[in-house]
Amino acid sequence: QVQLVESGGGLVQAGGSLRLSCAASGRTFSTYDLAWFRQAPGKERAFVAAISRSGTSTNYADSVKGRFTISRDNAKYTVNLRMNSLKPEDTAVYYCAAGSIGTYSARAAYHSWGQGTQVTVSS
User: Fold this and answer.
1) Which of 10, 33, 60, 67 sits at 20 to 30 Å (Cα–Cα) from 87?
2) Are 90 and 118 in contact (CB under 8 A)?
3) Quick check: 95 and 119 in contact, CB under 8 A?
């Protein structure tokens, strides 16, 4: 297991940008696939993006393709989510997750979760 702590959330106007970061504990960071999920009020937690342990493979939800970019720094034990052209429907709590079986979109593929960071996009 790995401990994950998200940061960077906040309030932004539609069309704006935010950069979320997730810091991980442990020197096994580079052995995990990492992902971002989000959960809006009254909705299920949904996949946003994932990145492979080497950083060479990524996977995005259709709703964020072309707007969001996931990246990782294995030397600094961090994974980031750059969010551009934000929309009110991007409002949610964003969670960082770590897994060991690939960059899948299913929640079950990830065994460690952060506590989340709130992103609010005003219209």
Assistant:
1) 33
2) no
3) no
